[in-house]
Specification:
31% of the residues lie in helices and 20% in strands. It is of the alpha+beta class. The chain has 2 domains: 3-53 and 175-213; 58-151. The strands form 3 sheets. It has a 5-stranded mixed β-sheet, covered by helices on one side. Strands 1, 4, 5 and 9 form a 4-stranded antiparallel β-sheet that branches.
């Protein structure tokens, strides 16, 4: 489904005239202005606020040769242009020690204090400052730091590539278009003061199903591990 077909379906559901184009004469069309704004907001809400979708995950890999030397032995790397945020379970790892992740320092003042004191975790430390990834100590040439992040671009552009908002009738949502449509329907009704409880429930059900299908279900009983974060409490066959 393209943006145009999504908007046409939404218009049919909320009782407004379906357009032949969203962008044609949009300057003088208040309804399409609102539809476009709602489509962008709902697409971004689904993409960024609900889960770390597998289709929007990206690798950040930086080699020590590309880093910028910072005061007190640290090094910085620019974040990718399409960086939105780190995954909720992200770690930053050095290729020289892939098993143990670097320590995240959440507070910038603590980061400065630790650098001035000359203390650091044996696995290294990292922090995000002003759109850059700072690591300590500096990464040697030939050593990389790697992390996973969420891509901010959730729209497939008809002209090629991706963007973070709809620019053309033929652009499409990178995730489930039906979820986008259902989300727009309940939100439109809510904004217009109409009853929307049932539509919100339908949207919630569709979103939950889409999220469930986005990654494999865990294995509860079997010989394969559940995940890297799981621990086996009873490794033998379950008594019958």
């Amino acid at each position: 489904m393209t943006l145009l077909t999504v908007v046409q379906d939404v218009c049919a559901a909320v009782g407004v005239t379906a357009p032949q184009s969203v962008f044609s004469s949009i300057t003088n069309n208040r309804t399409m202005q609102e539809m476009l704004s709602l489509a962008n907001e709902m697409a971004q809400r689904i993409a960024y606020d609900t889960r770390d979708w597998t289709r929007l995950r990206g690798y950040g890999v930086h080699d020590g040769a590309a880093g910028t030397a910072e005061p007190l032995g640290s090094m910085s790397f620019p974040l990718p242009a399409n960086f939105k945020r780190l995954l909720l379970t992200s770690n930053v790892r050095r290729s020289s020690n892939p098993v143990d992740p670097m320590r995240f320092v959440a507070d910038q003042d603590e980061w400065v204090q630790r650098r001035q004191r000359g203390v650091a975790d044996s696995c290294g430390e990292w922090i995000l400052i002003n759109g850059k990834l700072y690591v300590h100590p500096a990464v040697p040439i030939g050593v990389t730091v790697t992390y996973l992040y969420v891509d901010k671009n959730c729209v497939n552009l008809t002209g090629g590539g991706r963007g973070d908002s709809f620019m053309n009738d033929l652009d499409s949502f990178a995730l489930d278009e039906r979820v986008l449509k259902l989300g727009m329907i309940w939100q439109w009704k809510a904004q217009k003061g109409s009853s929307y409880a049932e539509d919100l429930g339908t949207y919630g059900d569709a979103l939950n199903i889409s999220m469930g299908h986005d990654s494999p279900a865990p294995i509860i009983i079997g010989r394969s591990p559940i995940s890297a974060h799981a621990r086996v409490a009873y490794p033998w066959p379950v008594p019958s």
